[in-house]
Amino acid sequence: MSRNQQMLASKIGLGTWKMGSNGSDEAREVAALQKGIDMGVTVIDTAEMYASGGAELVVGKAIKGRRDGLYVVTKVLPSNASFKGTIQACEQSLDRLGTDVIDLYLLHWSSSHPLQETVNAFEHLVEKGLIKQWGVSNFDPADMQELYSLENGANCAVNQVYYSMGERGIEFDLLPWQAGQDVATMAYCPLDQGRLINDERLRPLADKHGKTIAQIALAWIMTRPGVIPIPKSSSVERTADNVNACDIVLDEEDMMLIDQLFPKPTGPVPLKAT
Ligand SMILES: NC(=O)c1ccc[n+]([C@@H]2O[C@H](COP(=O)([O-])OP(=O)(O)OC[C@H]3O[C@@H](n4cnc5c(N)ncnc54)[C@H](OP(=O)(O)O)[C@@H]3O)[C@@H](O)[C@H]2O)c1
Hints:
By secondary structure, the chain is α/β, with parallel strands linked by helices. The chain is about 40% helix and about 15% strand.
């Protein structure tokens, strides 16, 4: 049984980057997240970095009174990732989220603090019951090897990285390695931050399924085992569209067309980051 069974039970998650930046958008952002939750999405991704804690506050409002069964993910900034700094950052995130426990706590990207210190802090937070699992983000294969060489490094449950139809580099090395280690992949920027939705080459596929280009892009990521896309939308309608992508079944012909339009990598590709 995968240690990521609870997270991967949700075929899609809700991203929150850029939420919480502007108070006048808050009600809309909360409504969008609650729409996703009402439609059955359980995974919500945020970070202390987003709007300097503002996105965590939005998530806190969205999950208030409906926390049970949700899988809340947040991230510590690398600059805070010392032993003490990680614990302090986690306590502040818990406050903003209005919850007693974070389901998954990630190191946002590689830090200048020793990685072993961050891992020790994560393990301490698990022991204290403040987080359930921990992981990393923006780690390339060499970073993952380094992590796995550390004490308790193999307890890393997840690596959250850029992955979309247009950015398939991780399929060459990182994705198969992670699958072998039971490290789940959270696919960020699954819509290439909105650029993919304008790729008219996907129009015939969208028309064939009676769906939008964005929905086809998300449905494709959902075909990858051990991977969950976390698109962000501040709109109730677009959030509903994204969740409805879960029903699309792409056939062999569709997958071949996508491979022609967006070829698989044939060698190592540097990890893309935002
Ligand atoms: N770990 C990391 O370093 C890292 C880095 C980047 C992102 N992330 C996480 O991953 C999440 C997703 O990445 P992202 O937000 O950068 O990019 P994304 O999800 O690929 O794209 C978001 C953009 O697409 C638009 N959009 C969403 N659904 C749409 C739809 N159905 N039709 C048309 N447009 C749609 C959104 O606009 P509207 O809001 O107006 O709908 C927004 O402008 C983030 O929110 C964050 O939680 C993590």
